[in-house]
Amino acid sequence: MQASESREKIIELLTTKSVCKYKVFDNTYDSFLQIKELLKEIANEVKADLRKKEKDIPVEYTERGKYEAEFKVAGDLLIFSMHTNIFEFPKAHAVMQSRYIKEDRLRSYCGVVNIYNFLSDSFKFNRENDIGYLIGRLFINRENHFVVEGKKQLGFLFNNIATQHIDKKSLKDIIEAALQYAINFDLLVPPFEEVKFVSVKEMNQLTSNISLRTGKRLGFNYKAGNIEIK
Fold it and tell me: Which residues touch 162 (CB under 8 Å, ≥6 apart)?
């Protein structure tokens, strides 16, 4: 390939793919800012509703940084985390089979907001060995179309990237679906064989900081582009 042809190819990529990725990032970040505002609103609304019912249940929104926010309700903690890179779906992914994507491959480039579920006590007592779960992933493209991969409602309510356009209502629906799932996702007793041995060091620590793992147990595996429920 001639040097001039190489240069033209570079310019073409910069003016198409790179410009697309910058647009995707801007869209994803704008949506993440909306997510933060919605989390604040929902926290205030839930607290007001609980006061009416005279129920003293902790509900709290906390900004963890430019690309992270958390929502604590009762014993659950949801962390919303925006990835700063742009991704494309694998060729075998269902999204790639959409006519909407096939018409324009650049539509397959998406920003990602991950939603994690932890026990709030894991952070309160600094239990560094505790585990959390990725319960949902929000993908947003350059046209502000979106799709969600995730558990229960998160996985089947928001699965058509061709028709779904991100807005305040859709973001609120995603957040509330994540909250419902987390609250219903219960902490299960770990198998006896996993916790029957305890070291002297562990017993000398505060009970709240014991290094045995605590986490909600639900059998599922992440496969490429899909969540498989056991």
Answer: 98, 99, 100, 101, 145
